[in-house]
Amino acid sequence: MSREKRLITRGLGEARPESVSDYEKLGGFAALKKALELPPEEIIAEIKKAKLLGRGGAAYPAGNKWEHLLRIPERPKYVVCNADEGEPGTFKDKLILDKLPLRLVEGMAVAGAVFRAAGGYIYVRGEYRAIQKRFQKALGSAREANYLGRNILGSGFDFDIEIVSGAGAYVCGENSALLNSTEGRVGRPRIKPPHLAEVGLFQKPTLVNNVETFASVPLVLEMGGRAYLELGHPESGGTKLVCLSGHVKRPGVYEIPLGSLTLRELIFDSDFGDGVPGGGAFKFGHLGGQSGPIFSQEKLDAVYSYADLRKAGLSVGSGAVVVMDSSVSVLAYLKKVAAFFVHESCGKCVPCREGNRAVLKRLSDLEIPSALSRSDLEDLANIAAAMSRASFCGLGQSAATHLKTAWKAFPAEFERNLRENAAFGAGAR
Amino acid sequence: MREATPNTEKTVNLTIDGIPASVPAGTSILEAARGVGVVIPTLCDREDLPKRAVCRLCVVECDGGGRLKAACATEVWEGVAVATATPELRRVRKSIVEMLLADHPRDCFVCPRNLNCELQRLAFELGAREFPSYGKELPPAPAVEAGTIARDPAKCVKCARCVAVCREGQKTGALSASFRSASFQVGPPYGDALQDGACVFCGRCASVCPVGAITASDRTDALEAALDRTDAVPSAVFADEVLSGVEASRALPPGSLTPLKLSTFLKLRGFRKVYPRALFSAAAAIFKAETLVKRLKDGSALPFISFCSESSRRFLEIHFPDLLFLVGPSGDPGRLFSLSAKKLLPDGEKILAASFSPSLSKKRDALKDEGGPLDFALSVGELTNLVARSGADLGKLAESPYDPFPLSAPSGAEKDPILLEAAGAIRLLDARGESGRILEEGGKLGERVPLEAAIGGRKTNMLLVFGLGAAHDLFTEFRGKPLPWSYLRVVNCPGGCVEGGGQDPTLVGKRLARGRNVLKTPDPRLAIPPLPHEAAAWDLFRAFKERGGVFSS
Ligand SMILES: Cc1cc2nc3c(=O)[nH]c(=O)nc-3n(C[C@H](O)[C@H](O)[C@H](O)COP(=O)(O)O)c2cc1C
Ligand code: SF4
Ligand code: SF4
Ligand code: SF4
Ligand code: FES
Fold first, then answer.
1. Ligand 2 centroid to A102 CA: how many Å?
2. Residue A104: nearest ligand to its CA?
3. Is the shortest distance between the CB of B57 and ligand 5 below 6 Å?
4. Which residue's CA is the closest to the ligand 4 atom numbered 6?
5. Which ligand has an atom closest to residue A97 CA?
6. Predicted confidence band at B350 (pLDDT cuts at 50, 70, 90)?
7. Which of B54, B70, B96 sits opposite A386 (nearest CB)?
8. Considering only Cβ atoms within 10 Å of each terminal Cβ, which end of chain B, N or C, has fewer?
């Protein structure tokens, strides 16, 4: 018996993605009906009870975010779904968009109803071109059934969702850059505050949530906040879609209750990753995409929940779990990650624009015997600290996480070639 | 623009490095800290520009932990305890400035901003003592000079001040930030040359650039060579607005350098003649008055829009082409000086005419009409270079009078009182635009200054607008409606010509420049003083015309 818990993924592979009637048979659109009838405060109270944390990476409590927006009197308000899914190793939003689109539509419509929003936008990763078309179909069938459009189910409330296609910039997943890009501006982050709840899309109050967050909302309303909470971890209710990839035998998306499994179980148990293929040995894992932490086998027994991973110095992030076996060089891997950030930095602030390049250069230097001294290594630590602490947005703030965590897990890799440590003559070329 | 009116009803109490402070709600941590004597290092921030918070040097710690905050872009809140110089913050700042140094050209000795560069100062103050060795291997972008603006992208620290001042301050929109990561760059969009885009060559970008990446072009060498010529008669006029820049660069007390001391210096340095610029300003005003009076008579093409330079036409071409037909001459006294000297003076053909002014756009005008009247349109930078290279101690120089401008054939033609009335009003308004913003008694800055003049017994409304951004707002406000003025003077720079693109950039926005604070609130019904140098200016005007001179710019 699998320890997966099919909540978001209920009906996956059975129901036709864009069929409203199939989705209704699974209990679909009951939550939207509730949201159209109940006062918004009650809906939000359930989400708060559920302790639903944002699934986009930052793990901000959805209920608090909704409450904040509800308190803002200014109108119109907008609901925006972040479907940029830019973190390498993350492909769970894709599954929802492609195979379970109506659950997402319902989640966004619930938000629309709660805030009596003027409109909804979904910003979809540009590379998901084909999926965008299929999602468009799902929107069409929801409109036909009057779950979107004018006077939804006779409630007098109008709401519709428009697809905006990204164009390949990772930073456009950052919520303020995403709004700039949606508006047709350059996709670079905005200064915050003002909070997006106050000055968001078109300078109006705006809610931005991740695909999986929105898709979880109907489930919270269906089972009630308390039941949803109890299903997961006491500090973060419900299930999480985990994306397993890299050197595992069974890569894929798995839905698990938060707090129910260790990293080791996720990677090695036969109903999940089923271990490293080809007889290789586990060397390290990378959580939550390129911006997340790297861990060695020492941390394999950490439990997969927001709180437990945080205690272990790790984080859930987007839900990516990338596994690397012993054939992979830590420095070579880090260089790939650093190169990713060098490519994706928007370039407007100094610590991120210059820091990522410095990190990449230093990682390359570390592979060369005697290229660097101990004081160069100290400089590198300071650069990483400046990036994490002083960068303008989350991209730069998390762009040194891979470096810092890998350094802790594999200190020898950083020391081996230092001038003081390299065997005399070893670096002679 | 940063709001100059924080919500003053509410006071916020906080501490900065343990020092208690009370400031109006809406104040930034940076300003609050300055108020109690704590100076947080900054690079991208400027009081007079919208905040961008991109250099990250000003990060501070609030309430003992959490995310660091950019002091320039974070407003104070009640009870917050701000720490500005913890060991961590000092390390972070030093790392940041080192990152900027890693790729910076090591050209300080030969950089136009040597000794007054903000990056140089920060590197020193933050304790950087070595260039890091992780610099990029990107090929440096080549330096380019367009018109009067020299750009050296390799020196750019990407603070985006220039973009902010051009897009949001001047609303000219000639610069933008493009590409990402290490390729992030500022410049004219699509890699165009500056002169092919929306640039009006106001030079505001050069004024705000903290480093030597955008500077006013420098013709000191050519000027020195010209002064060495024995077959020429180098002759000069200068605007009083250059004085404060020279004072600042030579560390002279403000106000100590009088025009007549500078005149002595110019003579020492090889100018054979130094004439009072005011004479040519007055005569130029009469030429402009001709245009105004004619249009008033015809009742057509009003208001007569007069920019401070011809190059500003571009602004209308790009943004308000429907108003182009209203543009009339700018009336540059430097050019009129040159034209009349060459035409009217006995050894006119030998004259090398130079005009010093803080306006960079006038310099652009002079360059544009090649072989045009003015041999040297010079800005404050060239003047201070001349002073520095001579080693003269200006403080100790005596005053010497201006040379009289000798008219070979003084005209006896009778004065035209209406023309002179109009010229007086024009000159008053133009002078206000040159000397800077007018501060009301209470210190409020006004971007539009009205003047009500009686010309030939007829009430005539005039308006002075400070800065192209303000002009953009005005023309937008009146789009599709008649502009209810007869004469509309637009000076490119929001601080007036005294804070022009050719002023010492370290003075611009600092309210130090001469001319600021001098004028009181203008009373729109104030009696208009007679045109200065009226008699001489009239004679010049007549003589110039009698000799077939044309002055239409
Ligand atoms: C550089 C960067 C990239 C991001 N990319 C994504 C993304 O692709 N998808 C996403 O949902 N959130 C992404 N985020 C997080 C969002 O900024 C934001 O926190 C999230 O959309 C909020 O939704 P949630 O609270 O439902 O998680 C990114 C953040 C940063 C700083
Ligand atoms: S940290 Fe700075 S450079 Fe990096 S993406 Fe964010 S704003 Fe752009
Ligand atoms: S000179 Fe003026 S218009 Fe031209 S780029 Fe600079 S600020 Fe913009
Ligand atoms: S050119 Fe100067 S003002 Fe513009 S971004 Fe570069 S350093 Fe800043
Ligand atoms: S001065 Fe605050 S970020 Fe640059």
1. 34
2. 1
3. yes
4. B156
5. 1
6. very high
7. B96
8. N
Question: Residue B403 pLDDT > 80, yes or no?
Answer: yes
The pLDDT, as a whole number, for residue B550 is 84
pLDDT at B280: 96
B215 closest CA partner among B223, B207, B227: B207
- What is the count of residue pairs from A and B with beta carbons less than 8 Å apart? 110
- Token pair, residue B228, equals 């060495």
The amino acid at residue B515 is G
Give the type of residue at B49.
Answer: L
Say whether B99 and A355 touch across the interface (CB within 8 A). Answer: yes
**CB pair distance less than 8 Å for A347 and B73:** no
Closest Cα to residue B435, out of B508, B380, B343, B499?
B499
Phi, psi of B434 (to 5 degrees): -75, -40
pLDDT recorded at residue B525: 53
Contact across the interface for B177 and A348, Cβ inside 8 Å: yes
pTM as predicted: 0.94
B99 Cβ under 8 Å from any chain A Cβ: yes
CA-wise closest residue to A287 among A265, A261, A249, A318: A318
Q: Sheet holding B458-466: strands in order across?
A: B304-307, B487-491, B458-466, B448-455
Give CA A144 to chain center in angstroms.
31
pLDDT of residue B510: 66
The number of angstroms, rounded, from the C-alpha of B205 to the middle of its chain's C-alpha atoms is 10
**Mutation for B interface: A354, A356, A380, most B CBs within 10 A:** A354
For residue A342, the chain B residues in CB contact (below 8 A) are 181-182
Q: How far is CA A61 from CA A34, A208, B352, in A?
A: 22, 12, 74
> A362 — phi, psi (to 5°)?
-65, -35
Residues whose CB is less than 8 angstroms from the CB of residue A286 and which lie 6 or more positions away in sequence, other chains included: A89, A246, A292, A293, A294, A295, A320, A321, A322, A324, A333, A337, A402
For residue A206, what are the β-bridge partners? A78
Hey, is B260 helix, strand or coil?
A: helix
Ligand 2 centroid from CA A165, angstroms: 21
Q: B71 near B92, Cβ under 8 Å?
A: no
pLDDT bin (cut points 50, 70, 90) of residue A428 is very low
CB burial readout A103-136, b (16+ within 10 A) else e: bbbbbbbbbbbbbebbbbbbbbbbebeebbeebe
- Is the pLDDT at A323 greater than 60? The verdict is yes
Write out pLDDT tens, residues B78-129. Answer: 999 999 999 999 999 999 999 999 989 999 999 999 999 999 999 999 999 8
pLDDT single digits (tens) A212-249:
999 999 999 999 999 999 999 999 999 999 999 999 99
In 3D space, the residue among A144, A57, A115, A20 whose CA is nearest the CA of residue A393 turns out to be: A57
